[in-house]
Amino acid sequence: MRSDRAKMRAGVSMAATLPMIAGALALGIPAAHAADGPARDALNGTRPTWATAKADKGATSNEAQVKARVYLAGRDAAGLSAYAKAVSDPNSPLYGKFLSAKRAQARFGATKAQVAAVKSWLRSAGLTVTEVTSHYVAVSGDVAAAEKAFGTQLHNFAKGSKTYRAPARTASAPAGLKGAVLTVTGLDNAPHKAHHKDQLPPPDAVFKNSGPFSSYYGSKIASTLPDAYGQKVPYAVKGYTGKQLRAAYGAGKYTGKHVRIAITDAYASPTIAFDAGKYAVKNGDAAWKTGQLHQVLPKKYTKTEECGAAGWYGEETLDVEAVHAVAPAADVTYVGAGSCYDDDLLDSLSKIVDGHLADIVSNSWGDIEANQTPDLLAAYDQVFQLGAVQGIGFYFSSGDNGDEVANTGVKQVDTPANSSWVTAVGGTSLAVGKRDKYQWETGWGTEKATLSADGKSWTAFPGAYTSGAGGGTSKTVPQPYYQRNVVPKALATANNAAGNRVVPDIAAIADPNTGFLVGQTQTFPDGTERYSQYRIGGTSLAAPVIAAIQALAQEARGGKALGFANPAIYAKYGKKGVFHDVTDNPTGSGLAVARNDFANGYDAADGLLTSVRSLGKDSSLSAVKGYDDVTGVGSPANGYVKSYRRH
Questions:
Q1: Is the pLDDT of residue 647 over 90?
Q2: pLDDT of amino acid 201
Q3: SS percent in the chain: helix, strand, coil, step 5
Q4: Which residues, 6 or more positions from 598, have their beta carbon under 8 angstroms from its beta carbon?
Q5: Which sign, positive or negative, has the C-alpha torsion 531, 299, 21, 108?
Q6: Which of 111, 301, 402, 598 has the most beta carbons within 10 angstroms of its beta carbon?
């Protein structure tokens, strides 16, 4: 997940916040309607939870403009969900019997008659149809027309310190459409975007790490600095490379040959081909082959200033370089969104599914669950299910703020990692020792203490919490079947006696203090743009690493797609040698690393900041023996990739 630049200067790559979606969308339920009007079907979830009577500030002007998307339910929404489950479940006779994109659309997509009926209804209300795709019909028009079409008044509501438009009651569609409408988005105009000029800006200002460094975990001890946990601690690694990560996670001889991986983010780094190529050569990865890296980009970019477009370049760079480092023979397609808004990011995911551009999709963005809206949940989950029936699996980083209390004041998970149709990837601190030997992992959670003025102690050791892997129990998404009998009951029932989704599912390296080395063209203080390297982390790193490992597993399986991976991942839980069971204090003595950081982020002109970073301190979350809400079932062990050879 991606951070703002200040966090990135600390070496953390965090998720751009993306308000997603929560709960399930109930369709085809007759809404209350006036005695003199035709029957209508409620589009549940279209009235945001913040649109309360107390927050209501009155009707929106009839002349105000609305842009909305009416998502199409397709010819068999229930059948889509059922088939997606069946082909993903190793215990199902349909397991692995995937459909082509064309067959999936023919079986589950909207019919021409449904599209025509939806367009006719919208136009009859006075709305203008601006775009039609296989997923939605986009419309624009004034508030009066939108109210007529969707059977609700639009009011202004207070949301925090701002005021936004939203439906005063649940929107609906004519019952005569016979369930053709999945949902409608855009009736509320609160921002739905990933935080992370139609022309893309130059790269962000340069960031560099200061040494001393360890080349592998523990190789250089901070002998002149104070003790931590009763002993001298090592300096942070310079940044692990692909060779070290492949060894740690049991890559063996597999390289991801003939496997296709897609990566989604907003915008596109103008120097990605140069940066990725140079990085591979400098750090011992296989050179990129001609045609191995592709980009699928929109016709235009919007909201580049609002979304901080340059901040997304580093995200793409990390994702592309990490995937190639771990799966050097995999084909990589980067699909950039036109902005950081939901509509554009959803379109990027849809491009992958509609064209079956890859079998494995890495996504390093998300937002807090409290910002979810059920209308968008329905739209995203439909794409995930369409992917599942084709053998496409989606991997999302779990977040970089632990239980989110320090960030939002409320304990909650991130989304879309909370979707029951994606693989949520948590984070660890990783120790790779001499000769690339795996030593241990902790759950990623950092507490930071700074060096005292006299240099003899750490101030208020172990210090304040700074960041950690996202996880916990969803408040809105029911427990998926594959988590039963694996996730402890206390976690599953934390917010609901019937059990809810718990995040994450699996984990990999994320801690920026034991992070990955990336190479990127950056803007230096003199205004020049030059390639440089720095260490970075976050579950933005964990997601592409797991995606790459899944590519190795697909190769081991003879190239047959893994599809939606969670049922298979949980089925392997408890099998010997498949997962590292990650705990927070594997050595029993407390763990920390020392760091020097440039005060200005790039050189020693303004001095150094010295600190000690404790490991395995993730807010209220704990990595314990067995499944936990920091690392899920654990990280891939030597037997993980090999285990797919038996299927």
A1: no
A2: 67
A3: 25, 30, 45
A4: 208, 209, 210, 604, 606, 608, 609
A5: negative
A6: 402
Can you spell out the DSSP letters for 160-188? TTEEEEEESS--EEEGGGTT-EEEEE-SS
Tell me the C-alpha distance between 49 and 269, whole Å.
Answer: 37
Summarize the confidence of residues 597-616 as an average pLDDT.
Answer: 96
Can you tell me which residue has the tokens 């310079």?
Answer: 238
Residue 331's SS3 state is strand
Q: Supply φ then ψ for residue 445, to 5 degrees.
A: -165, 125
pLDDT digits (tens, 9 = 90+) for 397-409: 999 999 999 999 9
pLDDT at 195 over 60: no
In whole angstroms, give the CA distance from residue 20 to residue 376: 6
Q: What is the pLDDT of residue 367?
A: 87
Report in angstroms the alpha-carbon separations of 132 from 135, 184, 489.
8, 14, 45
Which residues neighbour 81 within 8 Å (Cβ) at sequence distance 6 or greater? Answer: 385
Q: How far apart are CA 174 and CA 41, in angstroms?
A: 6
Give residue-wise pLDDT tens across range 140-156.
999 999 999 999 999 99
Count helices and strands (H / E) in the chain.
Answer: 16, 30
Cβ count within 10 A of residue 306: 14
pTM: 0.93
Give the Cα separation of 10 and 448 in Å (integer).
11
Residue with tokens 């070290």: 244
Assigned CATH topology for domain 5-19+200-646 = Rossmann fold (3.40.50)
Residues of the chain with CATH 3.40.50.200: 5-19+200-646
